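Office hours follow-up: a student asked to see two folded examples consecutively, so here they are.
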Amino acid sequence: MLVEQGLKSSDLRTNRRQKCSKQLIKEAVASVESGVSWQAVCEHYGISMSSLANWMRLYGSEKYQQKKHRSFTVQQKRSILRHIEQGEMTIRQAMSVYNISGPYTIYNWQHKYRQEDTALIATNPSIMQQLPTSANLPDPRSQELEKALAEAKLKIAALETMIDLAEQHFKIKIRKKSGAKQSPK
């Protein structure tokens, strides 16, 4: 594959510590951009994955830079999911608009945030119609409990959002890691 590009054996490095020529770097970058796997390029040119990653960052085309992996904040993910759940856009449209690599990325977000907090993801109206109304509830105690539960869920959602914003604004981790040992007093 790469040999077909007309590379001479003299163009390749003979020693891993030997500095690579600009021509070799540009050829390696062009190979990756043309669809050759990173591993094949690294093996062919005798370079490490980290070197190739640096070259792609420094010498990769603008089109390649735009295609590469993009990370989203929690707020951005939730906003995209809200648009999809409310029917404002399809998953394919969201992938196109926000430059998301595949639908499974969105499916993973949906799964994660449904588990974390269903109050932040818009619900399906047909499910809301199936919920019992206050006239169907047998006693006022259960009404109070349902109201308290709804308030608790909203409070949790608000606190989660507040923690997310504080972590993002102050750039510190606020949530305690599970299994972390307490400091001695």
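And the second, which I mentioned at the end of office hours:
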Amino acid sequence: MTRLLLSATILRQKLRLIHQLRLQRRYPQVNYKSSDGIGLGDYDNDGDLDIFVTTSTLTPPQSTDVFYRNEGNGVFTGVTQQAGLWREGFDKDAFFWDYDNDGHLDLFIHSWPTYAAGKTSVLYRNNGDGTFTDVTKPAGIAPLEVDSSGANYGDYDNDGWLDLCITYHSSPTYLYHNNGDGTFTEVSKEAGIDGTNSGTVSFLDYDNDGDLDLFTGQSPIGSADLMIKLYRNNSTPNRWLQLKLVGVKSNRDAIGARIKVKAGELTMLREVAECSGGWYGNKQDRLPVHIGLGQNSQADVIEIRWPSGTVDVLRDVPADQLVEVK
């Protein structure tokens, strides 16, 4: 069964973290005036969560997003410029994901170009050396020059590659299929995604049939009857697994756990993430973790690194089932 994470709880946890760090002076003072989003992810594979903070400023001078590397001893270091993530604009939210299955978490940011001309949503590829490169255009993603109200990822066709959905205030919803070669193809019409003026977005398996469905929430522009949409996924012949992690030494929902899956020629990295989906308040996200296996009948190896540091390894796990791990 799909479990939803309410954003209010996650948001409070994020704000509490920032407040505690500020009181303890464990990260440098920064020049942002307001922030609407935080992305958490272990970008450098050192076993602890790093923090990306989006900023939004209506009046000049515009502030920049801020990226903090977790040093593992309760101290965070600002590495925005050296990581290649220095960016002025009006960014609303961000998430880490491994879209190219290279074992390094990449970064997606969705934005409001209305208040920062030319600063549309952006995909940064993690180079694996502590730096990121803007690959939005070469990856085939074409963000609109309008305000994005949400973005999220999920493997809707269970081929082992994470796909992307972006929603907009006054424009259609865009679904991008991951081609598995570092590029995406926009497939909204072919997939039957016809929403306009949508708010936040979530992938979830609401009918428990093994593929991810799509839910888009309400934008503040327009009628709720027109904006809220639930799309049932009618595909796919590909195989899948769902992992429900229950923390014992770690937090109950295992937020921050890292999962590596090997299935045939596929090698995938997934993290149990904090809430994503968009800026507008009532966003939700899913548990358990959904993993597409392509045509493979099993996951050969599943390695789970819990937030506590404990590592569990599962082998030869049959496809098409929910597996609970404690």
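Two things to take away from it. The chain is about 10% helix and 40% strand. The mean pLDDT is 84.
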